[in-house]
Amino acid sequence: MKRLLMTLALLPLAGPAGAHGPGTEWLMDGDYKNSGGEHCCSADRDCLPIPNSDLELTPQGWKYLPTGEVISERDTFRSRDPQGRHWRCHGTIYWRDNVRLPEKTRCLFVAPGTG
Fold first, then answer.
1. What CA–CA distance (Å, rounded) separates 52 from 80?
2. Which one of 2-16, 28-42, 64-78 scores highest in mean pLDDT?
3. What residues does each domain of the chain span?
4. Are 18 and 66 within 8 A, CB to CB?
5. Residues 6 or more apart whose Cβ sits within 8 Å of residue 24
6. What predicted TM-score, i.e. pTM, was given to this entire model?
7. Are 19 and 81 in contact (CB under 8 A)?
8. How far does Cα 61 stand from its chain's mean position?
9. Residue 30: is its pLDDT beyond 80?
10. Coil, strand, or helix at residue 43?
11. In whole angstroms, what is the distance from residue 25 CA to residue 48 CA?
């Protein structure tokens, strides 16, 4: 019983890293890279589904409303999500003049039929 309780207590720590769960193989299989040559999805870049309401199409690209960031067309791909969801890959902490900047979007995967 004690072993079972310890296992259950550790389960939240053992979840999949980023988007590397069932149905997300397409993120890694596509070998997607952004305009800077960086892989969209890897150990230090989390890829997560985002709701339609978080995106707005602008003349400059897709705006990710929670951060105000505009993702260029060069860093935007068509989502191959079987559930038709948008995905945002972000990661790597940036520092400038000893100030931590927010994580930036590496790649955006937009569901077909959007925009």
1. 15
2. 64-78
3. 18-110
4. no
5. 47, 81
6. 0.72
7. no
8. 17
9. no
10. coil
11. 13
Q: Which two tokens stand for residue 19?
A: 């988007």
Q: Find where tokens 């309780």 sit.
A: 5
Sign of the CA dihedral with 11 first, then 51, 110, and 88 last: negative
CB within 8 A of 51, min separation 6: which ones? 86
Residue 59 pLDDT > 80: yes
Query: Measured between alpha carbons, how far is residue 54 from residues 4, 6, 9, 19, 43 in Å?
Result: 40, 38, 33, 18, 24
Q: Which two tokens stand for residue 100?
A: 């931590």
How far from 28 is each of 16, 18, 42, 75, 89, CA to CA, in Å? 14, 12, 8, 16, 12
Cα(74)–Cα(42) distance, integer angstroms: 19
How many whole angstroms separate alpha carbon 36 and alpha carbon 17?
Answer: 23
User: Is 65 in contact with 91 (CB distance < 8 Å)?
Assistant: no
